[in-house]
Amino acid sequence: MTGESAKIIDGKAIAKKLRAEYHVRVERLRDQHGVTPGLAVILVGDSAASQSYVRSKIAGCREVGIRSELIELPATATEAQVLEQIERLNDDPQTHGILVQLPLPAQIRVASVLERISVAKDVDGFHLYNMGGLVTGSTVFSPCTPYGVQKILEHENIPVEGRNVVVVGASNIVGKPTALMLMQQDATVCICHKKTRDLGQFTLLADILVVAAGVPNLIVPQMVKTGAVVIDVGFNRLADGRIVGDVDFEGVRRKASYITPVPGGVGQMTVTMLLHNTILSAERAATATVSPFPLRTTA
Ligand code: GUN
Prior knowledge:
By secondary structure, the protein is α/β, with parallel strands linked by helices. The chain contains 10 helices and 11 strands. β2 (38-44), α2 (48-64) and β3 form a beta-alpha-beta unit. α2 crosses α10 (267-287) and α6 (144-155) packs across α10 (267-287). The longest helix has 23 residues, at 11-33. Bound molecules: guanine. Guanine binds at residues 99-102, 124, 144-145, 173, 270.
């Protein structure tokens, strides 16, 4: 498509539609199994950004009928204190999802915390098992932001198979898992990162460009192929308080066929996929008699 201007993808509307479907699944769980999905969120410290993310996760739970539990620990908390909470939640049958908000204070090792979470309750998809499962397409839970990107493409009927996907940003949370998930759908995938030379020569090849670099205005129109699908995962607060993505939205929308706005695009989907994973976990717990996972699910 080479029209005048891209279709602006309404992440908020997609999220609203999915949440309505999830609400029905929660009611079905309650009616058929007497189960209410439960999500536990562990927040360490008092970062304003983390508090705001956690608030929107808890509000999302309320919206679809998931029970939530917030465990707040001081910035001085020890790793042992966090692990103790995780152990308790791993053993609690009312808790179907456990999420530790990142980043953690420096005295706590992120890997040791994430790996203590039961794989069966790892609704963030950050456990090493789930990360590794991305390579073979056998995750127990897909990580929420990449899953949100995938759902957006699916919702807009944008095919992935055989298309050139360029992912800008190689983080463990977004860039790498997004690349692996789209490769699993038979896209031809390229990952660019901070050390990539001449970024534009790669982005120009993209039929689907996913940008998660955390750099405002990194992607300008000269770097985008006419008719490309542009998914902006960036979320940057400027000095004047405005929230912008990584893409020059006004410029690139004239060249792309589809584009996600910031805010109102991918951001809306991340929490929605967390709600999805928590419900899925509760559905599995309610219907499975044995663990479906080929490894012990508690540490
Ligand atoms: N910090 C920033 N993004 C995320 C996320 O998706 N999950 C968690 N747990 N922490 C984050």
